Amino acid sequence: MSSGVEADIVLDAAVVLTLGMNRLLGRGGDAAGRGAQALAALAAGRAEAREAALAEVRTQERALREVVERNARIAALAETRAKIAADVALPPPLEPGEESAQELTAWCAATDPLLDEAERHLSEHLAAQVTAQVFAAPAEGLRADTGAPPPRRDADDAEAQRTLERIMARLLPDAAEGERRAVAEAARLLAAAGTAEEAEGVLHEVRLRIRDANRRTEQAREEARRRAAEREAAEQAEAERRYVLDSITAAFEDLGYEVQEGFETLTAGDGSVVLTKGAWPDHSVRMRVDDAAHVRAAVMRDRPAASEDDRRVDVEREREWCEAFEAARARLAEGGIRSEVSWRLEPGVRELPVSAASRQTRGRAGQRERRRERPS
């Protein structure tokens, strides 16, 4: 854009943390108040009070994230419990509200051992389930009829069953069904093992398959965490973008400008809006906000300048806009949105461009006029 200004935007840490907390809470609530304390101290120049308020916000935000992680683990274990039909107790998730950071941290500390115990019980249930299936299958169906060694004693079977169940308990309970099936297929061969050497060979294969299944399960967990982090980053970026856009809209409305078509235009198309004023019949300001990091704005003409007087008015409008932009920057800084001007074109340096929307409108009007002038 020509005849305008560009500025880089930096959100204050209190804003970023508060937006994150509000998303985690799913509403505004007390989080906005905590961030407001830090911003108020910033505006008043009270560095020590600001740092204290900001430290409180950081602590609360970390505690909330810890709760969200535990709630996610509870949900994952509940899903595993349903898949393997296990009767294992799980702690209820916590819906954070007015709890302090200390209370949230204490809940996490009390919940962690319960989750570890639940995961262990789920693994044991899965191990017992597979082991029971293995030794319930008739051994005759697992071996050829000819050349089969004599059946083993009950004591041997009992020991093999205990060993298998102990090994199977190492399988992570949230292993995929295909992984569990591969382990179970190897384990089923144990019922048909005729000698201690054959049994040990089967158990060794079971250990290898459990190791591979756990490795792939950990990879799946890591991939799920990566996707969650990407969603989190995208949601945070959108929250920051909306905060900046909403704040800019409010700042210029307070200064007497109107935002054409409302706030919704900021989230569609090229991300730009048009600011107008009642005393500006021929001028407007086109503004574009890129994410929450960069803003560009330019004074535009709605119709071409026809005289030197029009150009004099152009310079007046540009100066008025520059003053308004600086006033808006000050207002935004109070809300934790700092801006650094990276490029500026002084008033009167260039002839103002004519807005594309105005040219298109005039073009369509001219076409309609020419059609009316054609003879019938």
Explain the overall architecture.
By secondary structure, this protein is an alpha+beta fold. It has a domain at 4-9 and 239-373. The protein contains nine helices and six strands; from the N terminus they run E-H-H-H-H-H-H-H-E-E-E-E-H-E-H. It has helices spanning 13-25, 30-43, 47-83, 101-136, 154-168, 177-188, 196-254, 308-334, 356-373, and strands at residues 4-11, 258-259, 272-276, 283-290, 294-301, 337-344. The chain has a six-stranded antiparallel sheet with strand order 2-3-4-5-1-6. Helix 1 runs parallel beside helix 3 (47-83), helix 4 (101-136) runs antiparallel to helix 5 (154-168) and helix 5 (154-168) packs parallel to helix 7. The longest helix is centred in the middle third of the chain and has 59 residues, at 196-254. It starts with a strand and ends with a helix.
- Class computed from helices, strands and strand pairing: alpha+beta
Write down the secondary-structure element order: EHHHHHHHEEEEHEH
The major beta sheet can be summarized as: 6 strands, antiparallel
Radius of gyration, Cα only, in angstroms? 34 Å
- Overall morphology: elongated
Q: Work out the helix count.
A: 9
Query: Which spans have pLDDT < 50 for at least 5 consecutive residues?
Result: 139-150, 262-269, 359-376
- Tally of DSSP β-strands: 6
In whole angstroms, the N-to-C terminal distance is 44 Å
| Percentage beta strand | 5-15%
- If you average the pLDDT, what whole number results? 82
Spatial strand sequence of the major β-sheet? 2-3-4-5-1-6
Amount of helix: 55-70%
